[in-house]
Design goal:
2 copies of one chain form a homodimer. Chain A is mainly alpha-helical and 352 residues long. Chain A contains 14 helices and 5 strands. Chain A has 2 domains: 10-196 and 305-327, Citrate Synthase, domain 1 (Orthogonal Bundle), CATH 1.10.580; 202-298, Cytochrome P450-Terp, domain 2 (Cytochrome p450-Terp, domain 2, Orthogonal Bundle). Chain A has helices at 37-43, 46-55, 84-98, 105-122, 133-142, 148-160, 168-177, 183-194, 202-211, 216-228, 246-259, 266-282, 288-298, 306-327, and strands at residues 14-18, 21-23, 30-32, 35-36, 335-338.
């Protein structure tokens, strides 16, 4: 049992009330609007979770959005050498200038940003197909039909990444919202935070880690070496959870089910062994990012899109927090502890 | 003496160490890297304050940056109907895709963003003139020479707005930085936060307030009415200071000195009367935004550029905080207090 109280970086500091998500530190559970993440992954679609997050309740029949938006040419002008994360941040900022009169910016962004991203990557205006966001993404990316199993794997991944309480990017969204700024500004901030390797970038680095080993035995040997050299292993541990991430079992099952059809199915054994070693040596458990890397790999999603997919999902949680923050607002403005010098006398340039 | 402890929104919560700025809650003073705001406004140039913020010490002779950067055509393609704040957020995001190899993004952004903004507004690539940022801004904006008095007024305003501890936008910059994300992402977040009317937008609203009165007597009468109707008066009070904002006296003096040459100098008397009424009725003091509105008005700066000028100045403080956060990093990740339902049973769509 790990009982050390985590400190610094506002760890364990309650920064506000929220009725969106319970990230249970005691029973290691996750509830979104009161629904368990297990139930949502089992029974909901990502579109239902989006509705649940934005409206605070599950949709009735006929309430789910089924429209589509055209992709503006301007998005394609963002330089091609930009990273997809830089593109998403810029695209949302541009959307703020293009969609000024949009009555429901959250719904529009969640439903159209996947197509905007892929249109930019392929440098052609893609149609926003009917069907789920997951199906649309896979089929526009690969330019062929996806199987029901592939679509549902991505759909569940989008559900798992959709919302997670006051994580760094969501807290950025809320802090920007607390100045009563606009939706697009808040989301730009969230994307910027998620771009950091300590936040959204972890699944890319988990992929690099797993992918470098040819067998479970090799992984065990090398991970032990890395631990002895105090190298940080990405995809393990969590600021809030202390013994397990409830999302990890769900995504691990999906990874296992996709492995059976893959030519490099040994990667699942590699990942599983890394998990065993990390628990045995450090009492650290895999978080959502670890097995997500394998799921995306077996969905033929390039690594550069792992973190962007996190954005396309988390947009839903960010939007819920934006709405909640502004509905009962208080400016978020902490203090710092000053550690610098006091009362420095001014010295003119010529005497320095 | 106001002693009520302010609560909520992390008020009075220390979120980390910093040696950049002391925003003195007890003696209502402001130190930047240990130098008093009075000394800096009296003797420094904005360029020296930028150096002080970025490097942690005053520059020696020959150390100040004197180069220039060309404006990229891409910036001019941002839609003309965007607000200048939306433009700045988008421009910084685009800069992140254009300047990937820039070794000193902070210095480049601080010295070139004023020209980029004005180039977009005028839809032509403007030259980055030699001379101070204040002189460059006024002369490119008005397309004529500015007087030394005008230039120094803007220069001091840039100094006063440059840095202010863990305010909402700076805290956003630090939270994004704490994921080890990139500089441009962090600054985009800062701009987004500053765009909110409870933060950077206050000087625009202070201008609207002052400008609606034809005399000091009218202002007194109307402000009393507004207070009795519980209407919030912008430009007064502060989350940290309780009896005065040390920057206000400095900018008030500048406003007074510019008033003498203005045809609408009565606005200074209007503002002064509002200040008296607010103190008498509510024990609230003007913050930096209040008299800044008049200074900008008398520098012929359009209201839509008030908050953008705040950005062009605060870039320096944000940059210092970005560097400091990443030099000794800890992910900023607080908790929320969950107020929603627990254990909602899943209900299939057809039964809802």
């Amino acid at each position: 049992m790990i009982t050390t109280k985590k400190r610094g970086g506002l760890a364990n500091v309650v920064a506000g009330d929220s009725n969106i998500c319970l990230c249970g530190a005691t029973d290691e559970s996750l509830l979104i609007r009161g629904y368990s993440i297990e139930d949502l992954a089992q029974s909901a679609t990502f579109e239902e979770v989006v509705f649940l997050l934005l409206a605070g309740r599950l949709p009735k029949r006929g309430e789910l959005f089924e429209g589509s938006y055209e992709v503006d040419e301007l998005f394609l002008k963002v330089p091609q050498n930009a990273s997809p994360m830089d593109f998403l941040r810029t695209a949302v900022s541009l959307a703020g200038t293009l969609w000024a009169d949009e009555p429901n910016p959250a719904l529009r962004l969640i439903t159209s940003l996947p197509t905007i991203l892929l249109s930019w990557m392929k440098q052609k205006k893609l149609p926003l197909k009917r069907g789920s966001i997951a199906k649309n993404f896979l089929e526009l990316l690969h330019e062929k039909e996806a199987t029901a199993k592939q679509i549902r794997a991505l759909d569940i991944s989008l559900i798992l990444y959709s919302e997670h309480e006051f994580n760094a990017s969501t807290f950025v969204v809320r802090t920007i919202a607390s100045t009563m700024s606009d939706y697009y500004s808040a989301i730009c901030g969230g994307i910027g935070a998620l771009a950091g390797p300590l936040h959204g970038g972890a699944n890319e680095r988990a992929y690099d880690l797993i992918h470098q080993f040819k067998s479970a035995d090799e992984a065990e040997k090398k991970i032990l070496e890395m631990l002895s050299q105090k190298i940080r292993i990405m995809g393990f541990g969590h600021r809030v959870y202390t013994t397990k991430d409830p999302r990890s079992d769900i995504i691990k099952n999906i990874a296992q089910s996709l492995a059976s059809a893959a030519s490099d199915s040994y990667l699942f054994e590699v990942a599983n062994r890394i998990e065993e070693v990390m628990w045995h040596e450090k009492m650290l458990f895999p978080n959502l990012d670890f097995y997500s890397a394998l799921v995306y790999h077996w969905l033929d999603i390039p690594k550069s899109l792992f973190t962007p997919l996190f954005v396309l999902s988390r947009l839903s949680g960010w939007s819920a927090h934006f709405i909640e923050q502004q509905s009962n607002n208080k400016l978020i403005r902490p203090l710092s502890n000053y550690t610098g010098p006091k009362h420095q006398p001014w010295i003119p340039l010529e005497e320095r």
